[in-house]
Amino acid sequence: MNENSEKQKKKKWDIQVPHTYFIIFIILILCAILTYVLPAGSYDRVENDTGRMVVVADSFHEVESNPISLMDFLKAVPSGLEAQAALIFFVFVCGGTFGIFDETNALNVGINKIAHRLNGKETLMIIAITTIFSILGATMAFDPQVIMFIPLGVALARRCGYDAITGIAMVLGGVYVGFSCGALNPYTTAVAQGIAGVPLFSGLGFRVVWQIVTLVFTCAYIIRYAKKVKASPSTSYCYELELSEKEAHEKEQANFTTKLSVRQILVILVLFGGLGCVVYGSLKLSWGTSDMAAAFFGMGLLAGIIGGLGGNKICTSWIKGAKTMVFGALAIGLGRAILIVLENGMIMDTIVSGLSSLLQMLPSSLISIGMLIANVVINFFVPSGSGQATLVMPFMAAIASLTGVTMQTAIVAFQGGEGFSNAVIPTSSTTNACLGAGNVGYEKWVRFAMPMFLIQLVICAVFTIIASVIGL
Fold it and tell me: Which residues, other chains included, contact 152 with Cβ-Cβ below 8 Å and sequence gap of 6+?
């Protein structure tokens, strides 16, 4: 099938999905309207034994209404960009650094070499990469470190005949599976169990089985999509992007080589050595995003010098790479603007209180499923694992005690609702950053990710019921 017929086929069947920014802006307007509809309210907060501020379950009270004015609404976007400045600049630095690495051609040759060796074993590659990142997500959370690996995942997927979405799914999808099931997740499991008063990382075996089952279905979903795209490129949800990348790829293939020069070998060593340092620093030295950005900036300079790029070339390559991150970087700030509107309008706690009241009205047999769904909804407004734990677990623990649901079941419902939904909510800064790193719009990604999320949610619901039945 030639390129024109591919385009015609795509146009015939393609469903027009609104632009990412348009989706976020509509949500922003709706949230602003809610500040005029819902009563403003707040919970009292106290410091627990671990030093975290948690809500007092029965302390909700109405406060003076504070609807968002037009000026406050307009200020929400720049305020969101300001609030997420560290992460946004980290994303730009990552893009600039990979722009320099790309200019040295070391990654292209290295990935050609890997793809050549993987010929006929691409399915195993998807399974291996997704599994590795799932383990990282389960043990280290690996957020926002996952952003660094997206360009590599996308490049490798394309060399194997897939698309950018496949590359993102292998890396980000794997991390979210591990993060959500969270056998040893220090930011969700540990915090939630501490608030609920159960032994740290208890229920480990149950969570490992849950993760394995979810991982199997996730890998199968990614593989099915990847094979479909490879067999018929027009079925890719980011087909237009892949067409634009096709010309560049064909030029590279004209000079196809798997032989690395000494300079290129050294550049690759700088990359993986630098990535290792960043991971170690963030996990062992408490590095923040500014520290990681500094390390990436240094990696880029060193790679440019070793790769033989002149000063001007290093600068232009850095700018070229940073430009590719504009879409995702701005989406991070726009997503944060939604939370700012809700917080300034004093209706965040009102929403949580309403969901808590609805949960208590459910039959006891549906409480655990209700908890799962409630956490999906709340995660849209509070896309932070530890932040959501400190907000909702006091309620979940109280409701569990009143209804006979075990604490571990409530924690499983929290983990699944908070974790898996990160892949599809437009307020997730990590997801937006990863989509920016892969140059894929949210509106395209969500067409792929939503069915995957629903499958994972059903699996989570089954395991939530199992946890309740066995009295985990």
Answer: 107, 111
